[in-house]
């Protein structure tokens, strides 16, 4: 079955390549504001499904994914500016938050119709060190926080902010590799 990643994320692409998958990348326009995030775990699955469905152009298996950072039940998206990034990082300082990555698989038949959809979510707890204002400012000046949910990237320079995690590291990066591997195997999509 033709396998399509419905995401432009370089991190998701890299994870699938490291696992040995052959795939194509196709993205579509999806208005994320149409999805309520009152229940972050449910909402992030809806976001992933919306992105996968928006990318549908041909028969195959589409994988959509989205990641949210949740602190005290509130979703933190990407920062709107440097002040917003500072506010987010200050609120995460010395605390444990949850990173939820939703994944959707959409099977599209030869006639172009959606035959099957499924979603799941993985969650990982992340604990930050106590951060000084100077540390936060220095990190923001790198530019890395500006396109990341929660204003940090654990796979980049943001790793020095993290005291520890409980759960799957790659869920925090943006794609829970072990769970995705098992889900794809159910659809006879294997690496190689």
Summarize the structure.
It is built from 6 helices and 7 strands; from the N terminus they run βαβαββαββαβαα. The chain is of the alpha/beta class and 192 residues long.
Written account of the structure:
This protein is α/β, with parallel strands linked by helices and 192 residues long. It is built from 6 helices and 7 strands; from the N terminus they run βαβαββαββαβαα. Strands 1, 2, 3, 4, 5, 6 and 7 form a 7-stranded mixed β-sheet that branches. The chain is elongated. The two termini are 13 Å apart.
List the helices and strands and how they pair.
Elements: E1 3-5, H1 10-19, E2 24-25, H2 40-55, E3 60-71, E4 74-76, H3 82-92, E5 96-108, E6 114-128, H4 133-141, E7 162-166, H5 169-173, H6 177-186
Parallel strand pairs: 1-2, 1-3
Antiparallel strand pairs: 3-4, 3-5, 5-6, 6-7
Helix pairs in contact: 3-4
Structural class: alpha/beta
Oligomer: single chain
State the helicity in percent bands.
Answer: 25-40%
Please count the helical segments.
Answer: 6
Question: What are the key terms here?
Answer:
single chain; 192 residues; 7-stranded mixed β-sheet; 6 helices
